[in-house]
Amino acid sequence: MSNVAKKKILSDHKQKGKKLIPIMMQGNFLSEINWLDDFVPELFWIACVQKKLGYKTANEVLLELHELYLEISDSKYPHNIFSSYSSLKGHQKSKLLDRFKSSKSYDKLLMGIKDLQYFYPGHPLEFLYSNLELSKEDVDLEFIKSVLGDISFRRSKEAMYAQALVLYVAMATGKLIVTKESSLLGINEIKEYPDTEKSRQIASSIRASFNGILGNKDLTIRCDWANNFWVRSFELERPHINLQK
Amino acid sequence: MNERESADLNKWIKSLKSIISLSLERLESRWNSWEIDATKITIYEVTGAMVARQISLAKSFSNNPQAWNNDLAPLIMRAMVENIINLKWILKDPLVRSRKFVEWGIGNEKLQVEKRVREIEESGGNPDEDLATESNIAWIDFHRYTFLTEVNLGSWSGKSVRQMSIEAECKDFYDLVYDPFSNNSHSSWNHIGKFNVQISENPLHRFLRTPYVDSGHIDPFYAELSMKYLSMVFDTFESKYFPDINEKSILELFQETIRE
Questions:
Q1: In terms of domains, do B66 and B102 share one?
Q2: B74 and B5 in one domain?
Q3: In this complex, is the C-beta atom of B214 within 8 Å of any C-beta atom belonging to chain A?
Q4: For B104-110, what is the mean pLDDT?
Q5: Judgement on whether residues B100 and B85 belong to the same structural domain of the protein
Q6: Are B238 and B30 in contact (CB under 8 A)?
Q7: CA–CA separation, A43 vs B239, rounded Å?
């Protein structure tokens, strides 16, 4: 072994005192986001609906809901993440419920989120249930767990479909304008994900675009329910270990 | 453990035992043939003790296969590695540095004695009746009167282990061995976050890392590593003081034994 001059490791990092700062963190132009903490609570409801109804029906139902939301809401935040719906005021919620109830999508949506309704009270769309009661026999915690398992990895098929839905709705409602060169115009290709090269490229564009929608740590639209999503998840089944098996 | 595994383990233990025995003979032989200069006595004392230390560590380790795992082995390995770096650094300037090593040791012992005396007094005891204190003071006095002994609050060499490794021309060894094993010694997150956690499979727990204790397995890799580090100490010692001896290294002898 010798001390012959070697390639300097982490040479692109900047030393500040005893710390080496990576290049991406050296300016203030990036903020770090966490898939599990920041994104999953906002997309979980979409994944539930998609799993219950199938993607085609789910996407139609969620688009219809969000179009109504955009007509009624006075919030400046246009996207159909869960927290958006918590910005609705009392009279706006009543109006949305009245109008949505008359649609065939209403019952479908209720079915899509019934497990979420039972296990995660206080969620942003709870008002849609108005006086409807659910019993334990109507719901299934294993369904909740399976959806969470599906979307816990950002690049899973189910997680990509949920992210794609948000962008699809944004484009369909005119809240996201893309140029004709944009790969997002081929967003339907995501249904082949991850089996084709094109679908993987689209997925990459979706993730990058989605970061712009939800990637701001200062997002003021975010609701308490989303902030406490994992707290509630831990309450549903407390972590337990057995070291003596 | 099945029969085959048990037979393999017995073979390992037998080979290790024979190499430890051989190491003892080798140290004996070197020491007994060493021309000791009485005016530079710390060189011989410190060097000899370090080689003996390495054999002690290797011997205890080889006798305890239950320690051949990721939890315990790195603790021993790190001690062996530090011993090598220390020896390599000392032998760059043996008299000055071996004296530094000794002086720091007796000074540190004095400090520990004083702390113990204070603790005994504060709890209402009489330090003069404490056998450990008496024994440790006697040990210090054997070098120099305790009341004349300086205490160095810095490192014994005045340098970090990293700096010593650079000067001893074994920085790679420090980077790739000492430093990673230190994570185990310090129970840093990049040790316990790998070996003492298990990720929850429950999707409700967002990949929570839960406490985990390994049921215990035996990895002979560490036993071989102990032989390597034993060999390195002998190599360092012999290349300095017995350069004309042309014998196989401890590691080579071990590898021959294990292949038999």
A1: no
A2: yes
A3: no
A4: 96
A5: no
A6: yes
A7: 66
The domain tally of chain B equals: 2
The answer on B99 and B88 residing in a single domain is: no
Residue matched to tokens 């740590």 = A217
- Which residues does chain B have within 8 Å of residue A239's beta carbon, measured at their own beta carbons? 200, 202, 205, 208, 210
Residue B170 lies in a domain: no
Q: pLDDT tens digits for A157-216?
A: 999 999 999 999 999 998 888 888 888 888 989 999 999 999 999 999 999 888 877 766
Among A74-88, A111-125, B230-244, name the one with the lowest average pLDDT. Answer: A74-88
CA B221 to mean position of chain CA atoms: 18
Q: What is the pTM of this model?
A: 0.86
Note the pLDDT tens digit of each residue in B200-257. 999 999 999 999 999 888 999 999 999 999 999 999 999 999 999 999 999 999 999 9
**Residue A245 to residue A84: CA distance in whole angstroms:** 46
**DSSP H/E element including A19:** strand A19-21
Any A CB within 8 A of B212 CB:
yes
ipTM: 0.89
Contacts of B139 (CB under 8 A, 6+ apart): B109
Assigned domain for B101 exists: yes
**Smallest CA–CA separation between B245 and chain A, in Å?**
22
Q: Do residues B87 and B115 share a domain?
A: no
For every residue of A84-141, DSSP letters joined together read: HHHT--HHHHHHHHHHHHTSTHHHHHHHHTHHHHHHSTT-TTGGGGTT----GGG--H
Residues of B in contact with A3 (CB under 8 A): 166, 169, 171
B77 plus B107 within the same structural domain: no
Whether B199 is covered by a domain: the verdict is no
Would you say residue B117 lies in a domain? yes
Joined tokens for residue B216: 């215990």
A140-145 LR contacts (CB < 8 Å, sep 24+): A140/A115, A141/A115, A141/A236, A141/A237, A143/A48, A143/A51, A143/A115, A144/A48, A144/A115, A144/A116, A144/A119, A144/A236, A144/B204, A145/B202, A145/B203, A145/B204
- B75 and B106 both lie in a single domain: no
User: How far is the C-alpha of B136 from the C-alpha of B139, rounded, in Å?
Assistant: 5
Angle of CA points B19, B21, B22, to nearest 5°: 60
Q: Do A241 and B211 touch (CB under 8 A)?
A: yes
d(CA A242, CA A240): 7
- What is the rounded distance in angstroms from the CA atom of residue A162 to the CA atom of residue A78? 17
Q: Which residues in chain B touch residue A40, judged by CB atoms under 8 angstroms apart?
A: 206
Q: Are residues B16 and B69 in the same domain?
A: yes
pLDDT tier at A3, thresholds 50, 70, 90: low
Q: Are B68 and B223 in contact (CB under 8 A)?
A: yes
Query: Range of B22's domain?
Result: 1-92+218-260
